[in-house]
Amino acid sequence: MSDPARATDTRLARAIFVTTLAVYLLSSGREPPWGDANVQYMAAESMVRHGTIDIPKPWPDDQSKDADGKWYSTYPLITSLVQIPGLVLLGAAKGLSPSSIGLAKPVTTHLACSLFGAWACVLFFRLCRQRKLSPRASSLATAIVAFATITWVYAHYSYSEIAQTAAFTGFVLHLLVFDEAPTRKHARALGLFAGLLFATKYIYAPGILGGLLVAIWRKRALKRELVPLALHAAAIGLPFVVASMIYNAMCFGSPFTTGYSEYFARHWGENSMSRLWAMFLSPGKSIFLYSPPLILGIAALPRLWREHRDACITALASIVPVLLVYSRYKLNGDWSWGYRFCVFMTPTLALSIGVLIDAWQREPARRVRRAVLAVVVAAGISVQLLGQAFYWDHFVRISQDVRIAWLGSPDRSGAIIPTRANGRCDGCFEDVHQLEWLPPFQPIVGHWWLLRSLVADADAATAEADAPWHRYTSTPFNIKDGYDRARLDWWGLLWIKDYPRTRTAGLVLLLLMLAGTGAGIRLWLRAHRAST
């Protein structure tokens, strides 16, 4: 790559990072970490405040104590380590103004996911450029990934999926970079992302192995020259593996035992074809519903295969083994926005969008193409805004209440997850199947209904009368408990409504985020227009 081209790419990458980080922070939520994210955060709190790694309560609820009567996070160490900078900032804010804690905690807990989201976008841009797509096509495709796919929603929440997404995108990118130029520098970068990906979630091990085997096979002609390259990659990647094993040994007594070891027999065993169908085509969880631009990318698959077959094989070798493992998991229809377990591959799949845009830009402009692209992108942005409007638990709880009142309470005596005090089991089929399979409870439609109702300040009875399940039934249902708990999930409401005493600090943060967003957009537009 020539120096001017490299300078253009650097300029665009910098603008992408600044813009996406600012927008992700500006749109972040008012909710503290919940569920899985809360476990990761509790472990980080224990490290920072007590110098320990145990947590104060179990997750899942039936997690066994160790011999000393302690519980530990069921998630890898790095998912908690990434929260430590936010905790340090929280401590500083508390020291400066103890009354600011209500504003500072949610804001600082979203810092890591916003950073990983911005990093994922930069890595995707670099992936497009590595494939020799034009800077403008790469820039536009990155904007689509950043704001019209599920990437934005998971950069909004404090869950670790966005860190997995960044690590996986970087892993695929550096597999291709190494394939193009197998140098020691590129081997070290590949080792870094392989190690980081493994450390974010061990389930990626088959995908890492698949990707590395393809890379080795392609470079088999190097023979002995591969040995020092492999050693350089291992020198960077293995410390992540060793640290993970040490952490497992400290928490669960063995380097090869994870927090989920006791659940494997119960949670694994789904029919793979049924689960894969659900991932891609179910009415409630299909990845195409939550990232509409991926539908457009299907049109580019023949071109993608013809012109970028090596990238396709690398991506498939890295994605398919992970999907096959996930396809055996019985709880994929859990409490989440879309399929959490498919978020990691979204930017990689979106390479097809970049290929399509690059092809369109080399051909005469057509209004129909622009119109189709505009519609798909608008749909994608709308879905992401609906996903961020509420923490997903609110509609999930409402859907459960209505489904039970309408269709009856299921027999949970054989459920693979223990029931809670309210008699329900969080992620079991009995209590979440409506999110995946029943159109009256489609989450995107449900969030749109809930948003309209709350903005109109409708009470529970008025809102229920307009609910999406009334396409099928005229029976009214009591949704008061779940509906009254629902609230818009934007951090600005912390200082506007929840903690009005922090209004000055909130306004300062808002102005900084707006300034960052404006500066980033200005830089991005300039760099985009200057590129060729």
Task: Describe the overall structure.
There is one protein chain. The chain is mainly α and 532 residues long. The chain is built from 28 helices and 2 strands. The chain folds into 2 domains: 3-32 and 111-388, no CATH class; 392-410 and 431-488.
- Tell me the β content: under 5%
Report the biggest beta sheet as strand number plus sense, adding barrel if it closes.
Answer: 2 strands, antiparallel
What are the low-pLDDT stretches, counting only 5+ consecutive residues below 50? none
Q: Residue share in helices?
A: 55-70%
Lateral strand order in the biggest sheet: 1-2
**Count of helical segments?**
28
Q: Which word captures the global form?
A: globular
Given helix and strand content, the structural type is mainly alpha
Tell me the count of domains.
Answer: 2
The average pLDDT score comes to: 94
Query: Nearest-angstrom radius of gyration?
Result: 23 Å
- N-to-C CA distance: 14 Å
Tally of strands: 2
Order of helices and strands: HHEEHHHHHHHHHHHHHHHHHHHHHHHHHH
